[in-house]
Amino acid sequence: MDMMTARREAFDAMADIPVGAIAEASLAAATITVHDYGLDGTAVPDKLVETVADLLDRATGPGAAVVEGLSDFFDVGLARNFHEALFRQVWENCASRLGAEQFGRHDRIKVNTTSDGAIPMELYGSEWSFKDLHSDRDALLFSHLYGPVAGFDGGALLLADVCGFMRHHGLRFADLFDWSVEPTPGSKPVLRAEHVPQVLAEAGIDLGAPGPDQIIFVNNFPDAGILHGVTPVAVTDPQRYVREFHRCSVKRTTRSDP
Ligand SMILES: [Fe+2]
After folding, report:
1. 157 CA to centre of ligand 1 in angstroms
2. Separation of CA 102 and ligand 1 centre (Å)
3. Angle (CA) 26 116 31, round 5°
4. Are 113 and 244 spatial neighbours (Cβ–Cβ below 8 Å)?
5. Cα(190) to centroid(ligand 1), Å
6. Residue 134 C-alpha to ligand 1 middle, in angstroms?
7. CA-to-CA distance for 140 and 145, rounded, in angstroms?
8. Distance 251 CA to ligand 1 centre (A)
9. 59-85 pLDDT tens trace
10. If you measure from the C-alpha of residue 227 to the centroid of ligand 1, how many angstroms do you get, rounded to a whole number?
11. What domains are defined for the chain?
12. pLDDT exceeding 70 applies to what percent of the chain?
């Protein structure tokens, strides 16, 4: 099944999920600090991996995890190394329990750094990363580490749990979503603007403008129902402006060759 169909069907099914089938965990409980996990050098503590995986699993957590406190241990470069190592171990821990097999047998992990406002136009048809509340199309899990960041206002990261929202209100895909318009084939589900205030009020969280102190993980499996978005970025100091983010993501394929 292609990922657009998988996503539409998963959103359509959310109205029918029995009460109790997913954890009633609030996104407000997604934030933890590395200070609680005995960080020693750059090694990733096993307990941190398990806790992040439990937060991401909708059977036990809210479907997102925010790991704070990195700047007390790492500069941006070291934080990126730690981020990638943590991502790979979290994925190894939770891939099968989240049901990755149904999307193919092979992992394709991507690690890259994006300079927001200077993204090559041919990639996404915009120099800016996507801002409206949406699900990425292919990624099953992703995480972002922001920094360096300077010279702008806004840019707050928003998350919303539409799984609980759609179940509670008995809503289907077509009630809430449109498909994004992209310069390349394939689209992602985007929450229609008229629903944003109610979804944010009932099921959303504003994490503020993230920086190099935190890593934000999102369970982006179709059945997780976690949307992400960013409030508008207004450049206030063009000389100093920078908004980079280091992203790790994984999708599944049926073929092992790249
Ligand atoms: Fe996205």
Report:
1. 11
2. 22
3. 20
4. yes
5. 10
6. 6
7. 17
8. 14
9. 999 999 999 999 999 999 999 999 999
10. 8
11. 3-253 (3.60.130)
12. 99
